[in-house]
User: Which sequence fits this backbone?
């Protein structure tokens, strides 16, 4: 569904007036048009089926040939495909303020592979609509899991939210991390290696381990040496 630019322009004109400004002021005259153009980008994913972005898929044979050399799968266990550091931006539906961050996406193929460029395209369509980070991750996971008939999917999103950094709590250094998983990658043991690989990505805030318990022997103050007392013989001397 295309954004109705005329309605957006009219709404922004009224919004400028509602905050006490003059929408006819020279510096603001073009603002409604500019906002309408920006919203056409921000919300271009509304009403679009993200599964259409997967396009053509390719057969997956496990990377090994059968005994007859035909290339048929020979029982090889599929390994995950992981893409790290995919930049995205979206608009929070609560305050219509932007949030932006990085997506890390992995899937375990069953019998089909997809071009790597298709995964960012799926993220872009789903992000270009009023969103919540939690829902965005779930929608990415569902689209890949169902659209590729994958064995498993893991989606980790890290983002900074304007509604947290620019208003209210104004926590300018905060980052929100969400995890969505499907199928075989819902098992903690199966996704542990992937989480480790994702943790090595730039900007990923790894969860700190438990603080070490201090060794009482190492922190205790040394016991002072006893003060020697003179013997009667020494006193007599």
Assistant:
């Amino acid at each position: 569904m295309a954004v109705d630019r005329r309605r957006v322009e009219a709404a922004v004109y009224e919004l400028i007036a509602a905050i006490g400004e003059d929408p006819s002021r020279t510096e603001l005259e073009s603002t409604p048009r500019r906002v309408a153009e920006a919203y056409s980008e921000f919300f271009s994913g509304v009403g679009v089926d993200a599964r259409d972005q997967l396009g053509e898929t390719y057969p997956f044979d496990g990377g090994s040939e059968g005994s007859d050399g035909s290339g048929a799968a020979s029982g090889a266990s599929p390994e995950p495909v992981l893409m790290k550091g995919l930049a995205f931006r979206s608009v929070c539906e609560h305050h219509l303020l932007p949030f932006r961050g990085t997506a890390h996406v992995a899937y375990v193929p069953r019998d089909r592979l997809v071009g790597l460029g298709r995964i960012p395209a799926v993220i872009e369509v789903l992000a270009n609509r009023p969103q919540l980070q939690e829902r965005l991750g779930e929608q990415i996971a569902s689209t890949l899991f169902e659209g590729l008939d994958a064995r498993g999917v893991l989606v980790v999103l890290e983002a900074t939210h304007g509604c947290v950094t620019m208003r209210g709590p104004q926590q300018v250094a905060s980052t929100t991390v969400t995890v969505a998983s499907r199928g075989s990658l819902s098992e903690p043991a199966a996704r542990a290696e992937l989480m480790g690989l994702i943790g090595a990505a730039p900007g990923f805030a790894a969860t700190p381990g438990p603080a070490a318990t201090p060794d009482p022997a190492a922190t205790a103050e040394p016991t002072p040496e006893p003060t020697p007392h003179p013997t009667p013989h020494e006193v007599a001397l």
In short: The domain at 55-60+77-199 is CATH 3.30.1130.10 (GTP Cyclohydrolase I, domain 2). Confidence is low (pLDDT under 50) at residues 206-212, 232-237. The helical segments are 5-18, 31-42, 118-127, 133-147, 162-165, 188-199, 216-219, 232-236.
